[in-house]
Design brief:
Length: about 375
């Protein structure tokens, strides 16, 4: 973001991310740090450096371009690590970048495989890849029916070297869907067996954060940990909530209060006058709005923020750069004071899951969107 147009500050606690990496690693196997989408809004390069200090040797990014940016940073820092691209190459510009920036792409279609084989043959240079299988997500990857042709094509294109095999779980965070998770695991095993039988030795990975925390059976040589690294509990609100205890939230979002004034009984506030004071109140006008990714969808949903260490309900519609909070019961609130929108520490801290609940979304989206604001690393 070139022009700072707001007062919002995203504070990222890298020590928390490091602690979460240690916690995930404690479950066994190698943990691939998923840092796609700018490390879920926490800062791609800073997070990658922090994870490498904990021994993380493999990073998963989204687009090939994001991988190229990360490789540039790692080279400048003298950090040796593997980079795998979850999205794989999409258009023709992506292909040469894989070689130039040493990116291991997820390859999940014959189209990608043939294009890679063509590039590799022209350059006379091999490329390690991760073979991506669709075991139930129905998004990307080779299916069970593709296996015979896949093995054949891999044999015919020796420069495309499968070093990894991956698949992604659709329901690992849902205690009621264990059967679906196990069915995916079974299909993945079948795919691994087909590769092994054809003589391809690969590092397998299937589990995401929820899989690592809940499913011992899904353990392979490596797992791909994302959301838990950033301290959100993938099981929040479920019977498995306890499995995510011990994770430390890494993102705090705060902004400034720009005005404090009375709202008299019967007076309405903000666009549309959707909120009317039922008693004499005091309100704080807070410098956060939908231009800062503090969604207008939070209007009238019972959202809260932390002001002077107390919970203050958001009132009226969220505007482009402003919103309002009821601070009637909170003494001595002044312009220039902080309002905490996410995090805040202590027992009253606003968790990503709680904010996501008011917002009608999940912690992942809260992080990705709020993380687009100015960041400070603490
Ligand atoms: C995002 C992603 C992950 C990480 O998932 P979390 O639920 O955040 O742990 C793992 N694998 C793939 C393919 C992904 O896209």
């Amino acid at each position: 973001m070139s022009i700072v147009h707001n007062k919002l500050e995203v504070r990222v606690n890298l020590a928390a991310i490091r602690a979460n990496y240690r916690l995930l690693s404690g479950h066994g196997g190698r943990v691939i740090g998923v840092v796609k989408a700018d490390a879920y809004g926490h800062g791609l390069c800073e997070v990658a450096r922090a994870l490498s200090q904990e021994g993380c040797e493999t990073f998963a990014i989204g687009s090939v371009e994001e991988g190229a940016a990360l490789r540039g940073f790692l080279r400048a820092e003298g950090i040796k690590a593997r980079i795998v691209s979850l999205l794989g190459p999409v258009d023709s510009e992506d292909y040469p970048l894989l070689w130039e920036y040493e990116i291991i792409p997820f390859v999940g279609s014959f189209r990608q495989l043939e294009t890679l084989a063509g590039h590799a043959a022209r350059m006379g240079k091999g490329l390690p890849v991760s073979v991506k299988f669709d075991t139930g997500m129905a998004r990307l990857g080779f299916t069970q029916d593709d296996l015979p042709r896949l093995v054949e094509r891999l044999r015919e294109a020796p420069l495309v070297r499968p070093v990894m095999a991956s698949s992604h779980l659709a329901t690992a965070d849902d205690p009621a869907s264990v059967d679906k998770v196990l069915a995916q695991a079974e299909r993945f095993e079948a795919a691994l067996a087909a590769l092994a039988e054809a003589g391809f030795q690969v590092e397998a990975n299937l589990a995401n954060s929820a899989g690592i925390l809940a499913h011992q059976k899904l353990r392979h040589q490596s797992q791909r940990g994302g959301i838990a690294l950033y301290g959100a509990n993938p099981f929040a609100g479920t019977a498995w909530e306890h499995l995510g205890r011990g994770l430390s939230p890494a993102m705090e979002v705060r902004t400034k209060i720009v005005a404090v004034h009375a709202l008299k009984k019967g007076q309405s506030i903000s666009y549309g006058g959707t909120y009317t004071a039922e008693r004499d109140m005091r309100v704080a006008i807070v410098a956060a709005g939908y231009a800062d990714a503090y969604s207008r969808g939070l209007s009238g949903k019972g959202a809260q923020m932390l002001i002077a260490g107390r919970r203050a309900p958001q009132v009226g519609r969220v505007c482009m750069q402003l919103c309002a909070a009821d601070v009637t019961g909170i003494p001595d609130v002044r312009p220039g004071d902080w309002a905490v929108l996410l995090g805040g520490g202590g027992s009253l801290a606003i968790s990503a899951e709680e904010l996501a609940g008011w917002w009608g979304t999940i912690s992942y989206e809260v992080f990705c969107l709020l993380g687009m604001n100015r960041r400070v690393f603490v």
